[in-house]
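Marked as duplicate of an earlier ticket. Keeping the data here for the record.
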Amino acid sequence: MQIGIHKALSDEYPAIINLWEASVRATHDFLTERDVSVYRSMLTNFLPEMDIYSAIVNGSLQGFIGISGGKIHALFIYPTARRKGIGKYLVDYVVKDLEVTQVDANEQNKQALGFYEYLGFRRMGRSALDGAGKPYPILNLELVMPRL
């Protein structure tokens, strides 16, 4: 499988938001329907504040990663494209080419935590509330020993 990465343009944001929602619905079972709606509207405002890199497979958007200030703020893959190396490819790209070393992840998202820990990220801190002030604890992870 050939994965291409490019920096996303603002006209790609609607497709990225749709991908985000499909991914969240498949992986964030702790969120309520209202939460998904609130976060979706927040994402629209948050995307321009990050550098977004899209993963394209066979001409189709299959995942994206959002970074800012040396930290991964978003990594989402279409449910049908999960476990095919796209997430690892995106993380590898931002770590090696853009020197990203940190990520925050929902404590309840065990799959994401396992993924980041497998790649060499280690827990460095914890916030009881997420960035929106909701009671979804966030774990702060830092790359200690890359497996990339």
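See parent ticket for discussion. The chain has one domain: 3-143.
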